[in-house]
Amino acid sequence: MDKALLSKTAAAMVARGKGVLAADESSGTCEKRFKSVNVECTEETRRTYRGLLFTTPGAEQYLSGVILFDETLRQKTNDGVLFPEYLAKKGILPGIKVDKGAMDLALCPGEKVTEGLDGLRGRLAEYFKLGARFAKWRAVITIGEGVSTLPSHACLYANAHALARYAALCQEASIVPMIEPEVLLDGGHTVERAEEVTEAALRATYAAMAAHHVSLEHLILKTSMVVSGKECPRQAPVDEVAERTIRVLKRTVPAAQPGIVFLSGGQTDVAATAHLNAMAAMKGLPWPLTFSYSRALQNPALKTWRGQMSNAAAAQKAFHHRAHMNGLAAQGKWKPELEKQAA
Ligand code: 13P
Predict the structure, then answer these.
(1) Whole-structure pTM value
(2) Measured on CA atoms in the order 141, 262, 67, 23, is the torsion positive or negative?
(3) Which of 31, 57, 300, 307 could form a disulfide with 41 if both were Cys (CB 3.0 to 4.6 A apart)?
(4) pLDDT digits over 127-146, tens only?
(5) What are the φ/ψ torsions at residue 108 (nearest 5 degrees)?
(6) How many of the other CB atoms lie within 10 Å of CB of 132?
């Protein structure tokens, strides 16, 4: 465990005005995204698309890191440079998704637990050699509707335990763990319920971190924002989302932690930016806040690209614009008018 390297990596991940691109969609998720723009999902189209994002001129101004999928960590740019090497040369930290996905949690209908701990120590040692300096593990927490009491205690604690075991293994390997207990925004639940569940999930997560001796100084939280369920008739406005999210984070996340990043979770691109901006503009927060979006950074680029080489430059421009907007939002300097300006 190289504490100096872990500190350096964690600080770089949340450097001012920069955030993390999540480009670690599993091949199944990638297939869904590509299908939406009629692109066949093959090893080569995935390489081409991700290469397009990574080689966007100037993206390094706004990106501190990129989360890669195992396949991508081993792929190369059109010029034959391994992606992690290419990114590191640009000053962007290569990261790696190490979980094996969320599976049905036995005897807990409708709930998931993330798998991937078996053999993880060996995989982390290889990932470090391949250049990965941080990792990601995503847990999925579903909010039940009506009389349902979901999430269950079993779901919260099974996922927290796995997150802590993963985080400890990462730190042992000198890789910064990004821990992601994602509370899904799917469903008709209220924003009040989202706040309650997010708080419960984070409490369980940090209790497990303490129990497993995970060093808080070498840890990054990737969290969902406290938003209304997608189907809820009352959608909380930006200021309310910001206030509720920060209240929960202040209650649960130790100030010793170097930073917090957010997932976008299916919010619109601009909503994800506006919410981050409102939170980052608050004074006196104990940790830097920034983005670690997949969809909210990639959507416009994917829709512009549509698998056509001839659209590559326009797609890069669209990606640059979202990265730029979120880089400003991470400093509380974004304004809606900026969306109208070309990148
Ligand atoms: P979204 O920003 O699309 O929610 O993805 C972030 C992520 O990495 C989910 O694990």
Answers:
(1) 0.97
(2) positive
(3) 31
(4) 999 999 999 999 999 999 76
(5) -125, 80
(6) 27
